Amino acid sequence: MDGTTNSNADRSLASDGGEPGADVGESTLEADATNERSREAAPGERSIDGATTKQPLGSDEVYCWSCGVPIKSAAEICPECGVRQRPPPSTSQEKSPGLAALASAVWTGAGQIYNGEIGKGIGLMVLMFFSVLAMFVLIGLLTTPLIWGYSIYDAYRTAERTNQESTQSAHEF
Q1: Which residues contact 111 (CB under 8 A, 6 or more apart)?
Q2: Is residue 69 included in any domain, yes or no?
Q3: DSSP string, 99-167
Q4: Closest CA to 124 of 99, 96, 144
Q5: Is the same domain home to 48 and 101?
Q6: Less Cβ around it within 10 Å: N or C end of the chain?
């Protein structure tokens, strides 16, 4: 062997039995179909004398944020592409700031648990337990009311903030 390859031995036949690379006309047809598809107007557009423009929206229509097709503004799902346009209705209930504060006043951390912040609520309960134990060395006399007051304030503010965020996210869509 001299290190050269035999190009005739490495050649394979095309699927139609002819030489590879031989034009049988199929590629021309595929190219014509591709060119026709590229000249078609995209969804949400219309072609006027070869110029593509956006369709004007009706008074109760918006563009789908995924495919750009005009859809009814009340539509939750685009009928063209199937993409959700707005979040599903919220199943979470509003939290009462007063009830959250009252729960934390009765049992430190209970208001946080009511608001869905389980880890924070349990952490405040454990912290309060050690603070009450620290009353025997007098430092607990200072830390216990501070932890208790923080728990009440935080539960109230968290419930208010959660309610504001849920109403804002519902109005964004």
Answers
A1: 99, 100, 101, 102, 103, 104, 105, 121, 151, 152, 154, 155, 156, 158, 159
A2: yes
A3: HHHHHHHHSTTHHHHHTT-HHHHHHHHHHHHHHHHGGGGTTHHHHHHHHHHHHHHHHHHHHHHHHHHHH
A4: 144
A5: no
A6: N
- Indicate the number of domains in the chain: 2
In whole angstroms, what is the distance from residue 55 CA to residue 116 CA? Answer: 46
Mean pLDDT per block of 10 residues along the chain (173 residues) reads 49 49 47 47 50 66 82 82 72 85 97 95 97 93 96 96 79 55
Tokens (6 digits) for 90: 């919220």
List, as own/partner pairs, every contact residues 118-126 make where C-beta atoms lie below 8 angstroms and the sequence separation is at least 24, other chains included.
Answer: 120/154, 124/150, 124/151
